[in-house]
Design goal:
By secondary structure, the protein is an alpha+beta fold. 22% of the residues lie in helices and 26% in strands.
């Protein structure tokens, strides 16, 4: 190691503590400890093993690429709370856990929290360790291929070794990252992958978490640690999404950007840019295929414009069009000796927004949907194809046309399915209940938004970016923060509206004037004026009207609802009963009908929540948030049938074309 990095590390001890996630967590005296070899290693990780941030295309097979998953039962260990660095000190990244002992089997992909019967694992916060052995074919090196290792999501901070050598690290859950595994693999031999995962959140991360040591020896033992966060969903951790190994030629397609529009005479326009990495190759052939795999148009440049005669636009479900969710295939072939092939589905559609409405392909859209969670029994936040398929069947059964990825970006496979089904998606960052604003948080937040936009920019189903959910935008520091963040995201993507989800009262709400779309989370007769269903229409109507008049922008109801314990009934209705849930929704429906009838610019109605989900242990909830239209097992409550009747009464995606509205 050169002298300069050592000097840099010694002058960056504060940053070291952030990397280790232990500065004020497991040992309040850690700042007095001399920098060890382990500590120096943890510091330099971020600088020598960055993720390939610009190389984030979803892994697919082709003539030039092989793809395999590393799914199955991995070995799993947790570091003792009193000795969080033991795995680094004892070099767990280079030895098989069988030689150490005291490990479990853990499925990947899956959250680790609910798999075992051990409460220490369920509630664990700190460094956990995964390990897996696998083979790769010798021909991969004989053919001189790149080999990349890709994680769909690891929560929250992760460090990855291959055969004892540092491959890649990443911080931030819910988003993919990639490491170049080519030089670390043993071809034709057994390989060892080890992943260290730390799920500790901090005040400077997205989302934010807080650690304190209470100075109260009467109630708490010495060095007792209290870890908390403000969001009300269980913070599932571990390797939550797919782990892929894939190959490419030395020169390969590493990024694609498309922007679609319409020209004259029923033409579709696709402006595109293809980035090729490695070996200075700058030429490529582009072919656009229709749904029957017929060639529509071709080009021989890596950036340019494709004109599609008689284009079939991408329309969302319930649009009443002949073709719903029509997708073309954008095919790239690098123009060199060992060509790389990459294919991606795209939809041709446009978005515009005005002071009164959101338009898709120049037609107004009224959003009918809900917030969701990636949450299920046993798997936690682990992605599962069967569960995802069930959710989309239920979305279509309800007659919904949209959902928000509350309160973090969902799996890429979910967005791919939304593209195929014609479901509109608002993609939200993990900045839930943000209350500390500053340069460190801003840097992290910008990084997260960059990763989100780079990952999801080509999905026709994605119609809006949400920067945050229910931040403390009642304080003055939120104003320059969200203004700067909005401008940053706007430069990356000029084609979609940007918002954050507001829960503040109109007299306290700040920074929303910089957003394209107003949003509102409101729980009349639930959190406020509990039990008073008669106030819903009066309160909701007046508030929506006031917001839209003050800011001259359309407003989307992003959350409303009530808790309902499955099977609990009451006549007359009382809170927590399914009957109360139904009546509350019906009162809100009447309000929305009145707003539409009186031409108040409301963009849609999104219920909280699609299905019941797990929450932290607390006395105000029975282990779950029970505001779902469906149980956690994806079975309908009474409210689901009421919502189905309303949503299916809409004959199109426009509120103005619906002839079944009966305003009260």
């Amino acid at each position: 190691m050169s002298i300069e990095p050592q000097i840099f590390m010694l002058h960056s001890y504060k940053y070291l503590c952030i990397l280790m996630n232990v500065s004020d967590m497991f040992n309040s005296k850690i700042a007095m400890v001399r920098l060890s070899e382990t500590a120096m290693f943890l510091l330099i990780v971020t600088f020598v093993a960055p993720s390939l941030a610009s190389n984030i295309l979803y892994p697919v097979e082709s003539e030039s690429r092989e793809l395999r998953t590393l799914h199955g039962l991995w070995n799993f260990k947790i570091s003792p709370p009193s000795n969080q660095l033991i795995g680094f000190d004892e070099k767990w990244y280079a030895v098989r856990f069988e030689t150490i002992g005291d490990y479990w089997k853990m499925p990947v992909p899956s959250s680790y929290n609910d798999v075992s019967t051990n409460s220490s694992i369920r509630d664990y916060v700190g460094w956990s360790w995964y390990q897996y052995e696998f083979y790769v074919p010798k021909r991969w090196t004989d053919d001189q291929l790149n080999v990349f290792l890709r994680f769909g999501s690891v929560h929250f901070k992760s460090i990855v070794w291959l055969n004892g050598q540092l491959c890649v690290d990443h911080e931030g859950g819910h988003l993919p990252f990639i490491g170049d595994a080519t030089r670390f693999l043993k071809y034709g031999e057994l390989n060892l992958i080890v992943v260290a995962v730390n799920n500790t959140l901090r005040p400077d991360t997205i989302p934010q978490g807080y650690t304190k040591f209470p100075n109260d020896s009467y109630k708490y033992p010495k060095d007792y640690r209290i870890y908390s966060h403000e969001f009300d969903y269980f913070d599932y951790s571990g390797i939550n999404r797919a782990v892929h190994l894939y190959t490419t030629p030395k020169a390969y397609v590493c990024d694609i950007t498309v922007l679609t529009s319409f020209g004259n005479n029923s033409e579709g326009v696709v402006d595109y840019k293809v980035d090729i990495c490695g070996n200075n190759v700058s030429e490529c052939n582009i072919t656009l295929l229709d749904a029957n795999r017929n060639i529509v148009v071709e080009s021989n440049t890596c950036s340019g414009q494709l004109i599609i005669p008689n284009v079939i636009p991408w329309w969302p479900i319930m649009s009443g069009k002949k073709h719903i969710a029509y997708l073309y295939t954008f095919q790239v072939k690098t123009n060199n000796e060992n060509s790389d092939y990459y294919r991606m589905r795209i939809g041709v559609r446009t978005l515009q927004w005005t002071s009164k409405e959101l338009l898709l392909n120049n037609e107004p859209i009224y959003l009918r949907g809900f917030g969701k969670h990636e949450d299920s029994i046993i798997r936690g936040r682990g992605y599962d194809d069967a569960l995802s398929a069930r959710d989309f069947y239920l979305i279509k059964w309800l007659g919904a046309n949209s959902f928000r990825t509350s309160h973090y970006p969902y799996a890429e496979e979910t967005l791919q399915q939304a593209d195929l089904e014609g479901i509109l998606v608002i993609v939200e960052s993990a900045a839930c209940n943000l209350r500390i604003f500053g340069s460190d948080v801003m840097k992290f937040h910008k990084s997260v938004m960059t990763e989100i936009v780079n990952r999801d920019k080509n999905h026709p189903s994605v119609i809006m970016w949400s920067l945050a959910n229910e931040p403390y935008n009642n304080i003055e520091l939120s104003v320059p923060y969200f203004r700067e963040l909005y401008q940053y995201v706007r430069k990356m993507d000029p084609s979609r509206p940007i918002t954050f989800v507001n829960s503040q009262q109109i007299q306290n709400a700040k920074a929303i004037e910089y957003m394209d779309i107003l949003t509102l989370n409101r729980y009349s007769s639930w959190y406020s004026d509990s039990g008073h269903l008669e106030l819903i229409q009066y309160q909701t109507y007046n508030e929506v009207e006031a917001f839209t008049k003050k800011y001259n922008k359309p407003l989307l109801i992003t959350e409303y609802g009530a808790g309902a314990i499955p099977g609990l009934h009451s006549l007359p209705e009382t809170m927590w009963s399914e009957d109360y849930h139904v009546t509350l929704l019906q009162e809100q429906f009447k309000t929305f009908d009145s707003l539409i009838f009186n031409e108040i610019p409301i963009l849609g109605e999104m219920i909280w929540n699609f299905a019941d989900f797990k929450t932290p242990q607390e006395y105000i909830r029975p282990g779950l948030c029970v505001k779902g239209l469906f149980t956690r097992e994806r079975q309908p409550k009474m409210a689901a049938y009421v919502v189905k009747a309303r949503y299916n009464a809409f004959k199109s995606n426009s509120k103005l074309q619906n002839q079944s509205l009966n305003c009260v």
